[in-house]
Automatic annotation (TrEMBL):
<dbReference type="InterPro" id="IPR014352">
    <property type="entry name" value="FERM/acyl-CoA-bd_prot_sf"/>
</dbReference>
<dbReference type="GO" id="GO:0006631">
    <property type="term" value="P:fatty acid metabolic process"/>
</dbReference>
<dbReference type="GO" id="GO:0000062">
    <property type="term" value="F:fatty-acyl-CoA binding"/>
</dbReference>
<dbReference type="Pfam" id="PF00887">
    <property type="entry name" value="ACBP"/>
</dbReference>
<dbReference type="InterPro" id="IPR035984">
    <property type="entry name" value="Acyl-CoA-binding_sf"/>
</dbReference>
<dbReference type="GO" id="GO:0005737">
    <property type="term" value="C:cytoplasm"/>
</dbReference>
<dbReference type="InterPro" id="IPR000582">
    <property type="entry name" value="Acyl-CoA-binding_protein"/>
</dbReference>
<protein>
    <submittedName>
        <fullName>ACB domain-containing protein</fullName>
    </submittedName>
</protein>
<keyword id="KW-0446">Lipid-binding</keyword>
<feature type="domain" description="ACB">
    <location>
        <begin position="1"/>
        <end position="52"/>
    </location>
</feature>
Amino acid sequence: MIKNVNTERPGIFSLVERKKWDAWKEVEGLSADQAKQQYIEALLEMFDHIGEQVNISDWLSGDANGALIKEKLALLGKVV
């Protein structure tokens, strides 16, 4: 199980810390496997959104993209 939030919510001017705290609070009580699954689903959704705006095949064929990135995207089924 993911550990519960054990700190006070950061102040309004600590934007990044507050967002992280809110995200942690949102998954309170989930098992590690459930949290991992939600994370993977969020990544896949993000890749789908990016794929609507960028030609992934062209991007992946570029020299600037390392083999590790291509391998990880292939594992997620995002290589055409």
